[in-house]
Amino acid sequence: MDGAPKRSVERLLDGLPQALRSLSDPPAAPGWNHAQMADLLGEAPRRPAAVLIGVREGVQPRLVLTVRTAHLQSHAGQVAFPGGRQDPEDVNAIDTALRESEEEIGLERALVQPLGFLDCFETISGYCVTPVVARINERAVLYPTPAEVAEVFEVPFAFFLEPANLKRYVMDYRGHRRPMVEFVHGGHRIWGATAAMLLNLLERMEDA
């Protein structure tokens, strides 16, 4: 993104569905970053998971994010979208994302409007994640479930549209050099899979 979008955030969000895979066309494995993950993890099947990239409606639309609790086995203390692994009872990725969001941050399903999907993304922890993009009603009351989430916070969507707020760098991991991106807002470092999926969304919005 080589310049701040001239359209208002509200207009961008109104056109958000055009930047996404349709609800009738859910993505399938492998993830768009499969080649990179194959170098690190090999070709073993990835476990299915889903996250909710939720934008809360309002005068200033905001992206809903969480901080994972420090005692979790993977990605402890990191910023993440609400979500998790697919359960056998889940009908589809939307069902997984909504169930996990309700469990983690108390988000009522009735207050969520799924808009579409991003392509699947593979994580270093061995998951193939389906990102579900949705609008969240501004009346939704969100609160962390302490067993999984230490904090729920929101970032104005306009923050992510400003190119100066995106940082690119390279990280050495298991003998491989990996290109990375991150955002920092209000003391929260948004990086790793969360930042990569968010950047994918922003790039799709620019191209739509």
Automatic annotation (TrEMBL):
Domain Nudix hydrolase span(s) in chain numbering: 45-183
UniProt entry tagged with the keyword Metal-binding: yes
Pfam families associated with the record: NUDIX (PF00293)
UniProt keyword list: Hydrolase, Magnesium, Manganese, Metal-binding
Cofactor or coenzyme needed: Mn(2+); Mg(2+)
KW Magnesium (keyword) present: yes
PANTHER family in alphabetical order: MITOCHONDRIAL COENZYME A DIPHOSPHATASE NUDT8, NUDIX HYDROLASE
Protein name: CoA pyrophosphatase
